[in-house]
Amino acid sequence: MKLLLDTHIWLWGIREPHRLGKLVQREIALQTNELWLSPVSVWEALVLVRKRKIAITGSIAEWTTSSTARFLEAPFTWEVARLSEELALPHADPADRFLVATAKVFGLTLVTADKNLLGLGDVATLANR
After folding, report:
1. CB atoms within 10 A of CB 53
2. How many angstroms separate the first and last alpha carbons of the chain?
3. Radius of gyration (Cα) for the chain, nearest Å?
4. In angstroms, rounded to a whole number, what is the distance separating the alpha carbons of residues 12 and 121?
5. Contact (CB, 8 A) for 83 and 77
6. Over the stretch 16-52, which tens digit does the pLDDT of each residue have?
7. Mean pLDDT of the chain
């Protein structure tokens, strides 16, 4: 399976792994699954660092390199940008729009605990349970 981690799932895995459900923990640990991360998630995390909502160890460059090392980088393409504006989502969060569009364009399963993003029809999702 190709899994795109929502920002909070990625950060929980790093900082608070106990918040991940057993199924999500198992799927992330499976070596046969591909783990994907969007640059949008890295940007969201760095905004949290700048706002002092989360603390990191080392420099931003060191933390970014180490915390993304096991992931494939999901491209932020023109198609993703276009589709993000065409989605019918229950809220307007631009980061969520980019993540959902990325999952759809690249055939990835979005791993999330966000109830607004679960069961979107033609976008595969994996609930954090």
Report:
1. 9
2. 17
3. 14
4. 26
5. no
6. 999 999 999 999 999 999 999 999 999 999 999 999 9
7. 94
Query: What is the C-alpha to C-alpha distance for residues 109 and 102, in angstroms, rounded to an integer?
Result: 10
| Residue 124 CB-density burial (10 A; 0-12 exposed, 13-18 middle, 19+ buried) | middle
Read off φ and ψ for residue 110, nearest 5 degrees: -80, 120
Residues 6 or more apart from 58 whose CB is under 8 A from it? Answer: 66
Domains in the chain: ranges and CATH: 2-127 (3.40.50.1010)
Secondary structure (H, E, C), the chain? CEEEECHHHHHHHHHCHHHCCHHHHHHHHCCCCEEEECHHHHHHHHHHHHCCCCCCCCCHHHHHHHHHCCCEECCCCHHHHHHHHHCCCCCCCHHHHHHHHHHHHHCCEEEECCHHHCCCCCCCEEECC
Specify whether the CB–CB gap between 115 and 99 falls below 8 A. no
- Report the DSSP pairing between strands 34-37 and 2-5: parallel
**Mean pLDDT for the stretch of residues 66-90:** 94
pTM: 0.94
